[in-house]
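Consider this one:
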Amino acid sequence: MSVGAALRRRRNELGMTLRELAEEAELTSGFLSQVENDHVSPSLKSLGRIAEVLRFPLFQLLSTHASNPVVRADERIAVPWMDTGVEAVLLTPYRDWQMMPFHRTMAPGERVPAVRLERAREEWYYVLEGAIEITLTNDECFVLGEGDAIHFESSRLHEVANPTDKTATFICMMTPPQL
């Protein structure tokens, strides 16, 4: 089932009009109509607002419920990460499970401020190539090189950056937020 159809079904189960959903999610009813008809793909931030109003787990909406647990290198799906302009390449077909692993490449000098995810609990990063800088609250800053890893509480993340002049590649695993 498509994301749009799942949203429409849930909205109807709750007896909500498109206008009511739009008001509560602080989006336009025209935009929501396009989402429900699969004419546009909402950002994760917009989808999160919709899911919260509909009391529907965000990552369940994104789940493929694939019967095949293998993700081939040429079949990975890139998804937008909130309104950051960043895409994360998913390393699992199951987006509603306890762990959300993804692959990311950062350009030299790229900096991405943390997006606060309510109820996200843990994050883990492992650097495959290059170096990344993880800044946590209280100005704790860690530069990780190839083979280094870090594990921390999600609410502590302040920024992820590539402080070098070379591309960095890493794997991140997080516990997705439950809405």
